[in-house]
Structure formats: structure tokens, C-alpha cells
């Protein structure tokens, strides 16, 4: 990640945080329709920051995403689907890898079908009404975000027999996988894990990778949930539609307004986590550039 991209992402996050602060002030003043509009704006800008980090260009944000943050996640699902398709195709070329014991827990065809369903579900959302979500639906989404926030994966101790066996399986997998220039070769990996220090280093790498992915899954889940909560409110909070006025809709009788404080707390924690994650990734990318060849 270069410094210019990092600065642009930080700018989007800063604007998002400012909108959220204003939303909280107006919420406490019972100016609910304007408060919810600013909350929607805050979510939209945070998701755009996430999209830039994920590789979207400014042009894509303007022309393809617009004011619908859910389109960011739809594109990411589509990209994941293509990657899974390529993986399935490549595994067919290497039966040894496809049938390896490390691959048995994974059903990539089932995951591909799941992604198909996710794309269909996102496309169907435009016909759904999320303005009048009930308390149970809101709580269900918030609970799923909380589960992601505290998710953990237990690893065996790095000096245990179980971890040694898993590394041995991984080394065997490496011998059958085609390597690319610059990647660690199978003999190099086998040499690394043959020593106590090498196994300790590999343990730290695996633990860091798991933590990194769990963290990204958490703030991603929070942003998706808040996008659901806010995506249809950009216009409804500001304009009169026939006999329907924002002043009549956005009151404490609306479940989303009643739960808005809790939703904003969830969102704010996720934004803080994303900021720390982003800073760590930027520092790591800079450190790697300074490594001697």
C-alpha cells in the first residue's frame, strides 16, 4: 500500500467519523431524520474506504458504486466466485492436490454455490423494504456481528506433536503444488520446519494470518450489517414522498431509530478496528520495502 492510497483511505474514514459524531449529536437532540441521514452517510464513506483498501479505484467508486455501499460487497462476492472457479479448475489439473488430506475438509463446489446464492440475495434486496425492519431482525444482525467480533480459532501449541504433524502434511502438500518464482519451494519449507526455531516462526506466521483474517471478517461483517441498516435511507430521510414525510417516519416508534444508538456503537467499534488494521498493514508494507534484497 503506497502512502497516497493510505492517505486517501484515512481521509474517507475521517469524514465518516465526523458524520457519525454529528449523527450522535442530532440523535440526542431528537432530530432523528437528519441524524439517520448522517449515519447513512457515515456508513457509506467507511465502506468506500474499505473498498479502496480492497483494490477499488476512485473511478469505480464513482461510476459503479455510487451511493449504494452494498454494491461493494456484491463485487467482492463476484471476485471471490471467480477465484473459487479458478481454484476448482486448477485442482482438476493436479489430482494429488485435489485428493490431499488437507483439502478434504473443503467443498469448493459447495462454496461456489453459496456465493451464487449470495449474489442472487443481494440482487433481490432492491425489492425489499429495510426501513421498517423489526427489532428481532435488527438484533439478529447485531448478534452476528458480535459473534464475528469475538471469534477465535484455537491452534495447537507450536512445540506439540499435533502441530508438527500438521506442518508435515503441509510440507507434503508443498511437494505436489506448482511453485511460482519468488515463492518458497518445497525443500526450503521442509528445511524451515525441521528446526525448533523454524517451527516457532511458522507458528507465528500462521497465528498472525488467522488473526488478520478474523479481524477483517469482523469489521467487514459490521460494515455489511450497517449497510443493510442504512442503504435505503439516503433519500427517505430527506424527501417527502406523497403523504409520507421523514418527520413522520423517523421517530422513536421506528425500530431502527430505537436501536440506532446501539447500531452506531457497533459501527464505531468496527471503524476503530479497521483504522488499527489499516495502520498495521501500511506499517508492514513499508517495513517489507525496506528489507534488504
Blueprint of the fold:
Elements: H1 3-28, H2 32-53, H3 58-65, H4 70-93, H5 95-98, H6 108-124, H7 135-149, H8 161-176, H9 186-192, H10 196-230, H11 233-236, H12 246-249, H13 255-258, H14 260-290
Helix pairs in contact: 1-2, 1-14, 2-10, 2-14, 4-6, 7-10, 8-9, 10-14
Describe the structure.
- The radius of gyration is 23 Å and the shape is elongated.
- The mean pLDDT is 87.
- It folds into 2 domains: 3-69 and 129-290, no CATH class; 73-128.
- The two termini are 19 Å apart.
- It has helices at residues 3-28, 32-53, 58-65, 70-93, 95-98, 108-124, 135-149, 161-176, 186-192, 196-230, 233-236, 246-249, 255-258, 260-290.
- By secondary structure, it is mostly helical.
- It is 74% helix and 0% strand.
Amino acid at each position: 500500500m503506497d502512502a497516497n492510497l493510505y492517505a486517501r483511505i484515512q481521509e474517507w474514514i475521517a469524514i465518516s467519523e465526523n458524520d457519525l459524531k454529528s449523527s450522535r449529536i442530532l440523535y440526542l437532540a431528537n432530530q432523528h431524520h437528519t441524524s439517520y441521514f448522517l449515519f447513512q452517510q457515515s456508513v457509506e464513506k467507511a465502506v468506500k474506504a474499505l473498498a479502496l483498501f480492497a483494490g477499488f479505484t476512485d473511478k469505480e467508486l464513482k461510476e459503479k458504486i455510487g451511493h449504494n455501499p452494498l454494491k461493494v460487497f456484491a463485487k467482492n462476492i463476484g471476485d471471490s466466485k471467480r477465484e473459487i472457479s479458478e481454484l476448482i479448475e486448477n485442482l482438476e489439473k493436479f489430482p494429488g492436490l485435489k485428493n490431499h488430506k488437507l483439502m478434504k475438509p473443503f467443498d469448493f463446489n459447495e462454496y461456489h454455490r453459496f456465493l451464487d446464492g449470495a449474489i442472487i440475495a443481494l440482487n433481490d434486496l432492491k425489492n425489499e423494504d429495510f426501513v421498517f425492519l423489526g427489532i428481532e431482525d435488527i438484533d439478529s444482525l447485531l448478534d452476528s456481528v458480535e459473534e464475528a467480533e469475538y471469534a477465535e480459532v484455537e491452534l495447537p501449541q507450536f512445540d506439540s506433536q499435533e502441530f508438527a504433524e500438521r506442518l508435515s502434511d503441509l510440507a507434503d502438500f508443498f511437494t505436489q503444488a506448482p511453485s511460482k518464482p519468488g515463492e518458497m519451494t518445497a525443500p526450503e519449507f521442509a528445511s524451515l520446519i525441521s528446526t525448533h526455531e523454524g517451527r516457532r516462526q511458522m507458528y507465528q506466521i500462521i497465528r498472525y494470518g488467522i488473526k488478520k483474517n478474523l479481524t477483517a471478517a469482523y469489521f467487514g461483517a459490521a460494515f455489511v450489517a450497517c449497510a443493510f441498516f442504512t442503504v435505503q435511507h439516503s433519500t427517505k430521510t430527506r424527501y417527502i414522498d406523497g403523504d409520507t414525510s421523514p418527520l413522520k417516519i423517523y421517530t422513536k416508534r421506528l425500530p431502527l431509530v430505537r436501536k440506532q444508538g446501539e447500531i452506531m456503537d457497533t459501527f464505531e467499534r468496527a471503524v476503530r478496528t479497521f483504522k488499527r488494521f489499516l495502520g498495521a498493514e501500511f506499517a508492514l508494507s513499508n517495513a517489507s520495502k525496506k528489507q534488504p534484497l
